[in-house]
Records
---
Amino acid sequence: MTLTNEVQTLREKRLPVRLHLGCGPNLFEGWINIDGDYCAGQPGVTIHNLTDTYPIPDNSVDEILSVHVIEHIMPDKVPLMLKEWHRIIKPGGFVATEWPDLLKMCKFIVDDPSRLYSDNRKILKQGIAGIFGNIARYQDVAMMHKWGYSADSLSKILKDSGFSKTVTEPNKYPKTGMCSRVVAYK
Ligand SMILES: C[S@@+](CC[C@H](N)C(=O)[O-])C[C@H]1O[C@@H](n2cnc3c(N)ncnc32)[C@H](O)[C@@H]1O
């Protein structure tokens, strides 16, 4: 089913429309799980490039979730993508974004610069590999990190894209201690 049809079907059944963007292998029940060509052929995933226009009416989505995805998007594409998210979200709806926080990872490294060349994978993941992505393991360009955000910098871009309020919350899907979560309301 296409993204357009999936949204239309949920709306006709008066069910919440919830988009899980950049889902990867993590399929959530009750959500439309969306990813790019990297996940083509993966059952249960609706393929859509997140930086393309969404074939969805204005004010039609209740909730958007993206976990460890924003850092994979080219920074010049982010403002337009967030404007699209704002367009499709219903008034009162919200967008929750979780990602490895650049400021936390930089502080982690500055606190002990030997963490840059540690043999410990967990330490690398909280620092240098968290910043650039695990390039040795995931060589597809979709999996490389293109930019970095702090809670304040992402909140500013979300507000500049039209969201009325942002709240920084504890992570619901933490992968390391360096993650942040910002929820933006329309
Ligand atoms: C690090 S994975 C995160 C997967 C999952 N959200 C998780 O928490 O494990 C990043 C995901 O974003 C997807 N992605 C990156 N750029 C994308 C784009 N332009 N359009 C759609 N998906 C994209 C990748 O294909 C990948 O599945």
---
Amino acid sequence: MGGVEVRFEERHETPMNVQLLRGRDLRPPSRRAQISPVASESSLPTELIPPRTKGPTRKKALRFPVNRETRAFYRRFYPDTTAAEWNDWRWQLRSRIRTLSELERIFVLSEDEQSAVARHTGSLPVGITPYYASLMDRHDPSEPLRRTHVMAGGEYVRLPGEEDDPLGEDHDTVVPGLVHRYPDRVLFLATGTCSTYCRYCTRSRLVGNPGGEYQFNVRNWDRAIEYLEAHTEVRDVLLSGGDPLTIGDDKLDYLLGRLRAIPHIEFLRIGSKVPSVLPQRITKELVNMLKKHHPLWMSLHFTHPRELTPEVTEATARLADAGIPLGSQTVLLKGINDDGELMKRLMHGLLIRRVKPYYLYQCDPIKGSGHFRTPVAKGLEIIRALRGHTTGYATPMFVIDAPGGGGKILMAPDSVVGRDGDDLLLRNFEGQIYRYPDPAGAGEEPAGIAAAE
Ligand code: SF4
């Protein structure tokens, strides 16, 4: 058993410890608080500080934490903002950093960033919540979170094979905002708004552009719902966008309620980046509303361990406590998270927060994304660094979403080496070959298994 798990079980739940674990107070523990024989909580990297479940200070826990760096940031750049405003998700959304001058008020921009922002028009504008900006380096344009959200000149370079709609979603759109590609499930694009705009977004063609070609409104929702009522083969609806958690509680409740009322729809999912970039959105009112629509699952978008702050710990704890199974999706990005050890830290930090690492995506060939894309071999290398070397739950599936609408294709390092008579030859995580007796399979190898030399 690892040190973290031992500490978690042995912890004495004093009020101070509860505060520490929920990230509400970053002061050192009092002498009364029990310290692990291995290390104190405060000596752990932030992403590995485990969250607490319900405890004696539950009432206090409903207040939202503010990590130390973020507090220093908002006091400096938003000095007239109260803590209540800062923790209000609507204030965060209203106050997003959207223009060159707003960026320049906070960041020391490179010439490349300046000119990229200045020449931008159309969809996928700049948009960064003040909270998420507080996690970025003000001076270093190569800092990972900053690179994913501040424009760079690479966005204007179109490489061969890149498309506006690389997954062919428009082709499979049956009514505006509803993509029906697989027989039993649909993608419901509920909104074009996100709390932050990721520079590598697969739907860059349609987000952040209210007057543009793609329209999202209740009339279109109703048309999509009529389609779903008529298509009894659909049992699973994934709400995405844009980000569905930018929709107000009442409207989202209406949409989930309409979908839940369709008898053949068994399963609802929400895809969202909000818990990592606007964790204050996960209010108790929101989770109480979401709980009414079970079975409801969520896929949360995380990129880097730096995102795993006390605020995110609180947001994921609230969702998990509401009985919402949480999975993660991460896009593999060059120079940002393309490193086995870093990815392991991210996956461990997610597991501790009850988020199951689900998908690791090869970056889609969206127009202007070449500076983010790694060779596919890098993703396989990362999976090799995880599989067998850490908890199986911490290993996501590495997938390529096939250009043109072929769906997700699982990419796995080869484990079947071949066959020797009745034996299948298998490679383990250390690269060693093992035999598995499989006489019934002799002569019936699936395509791709070569005879042993
Ligand atoms: S939050 Fe999702 S939909 Fe919005 S810009 Fe980022 S990747 Fe795209």
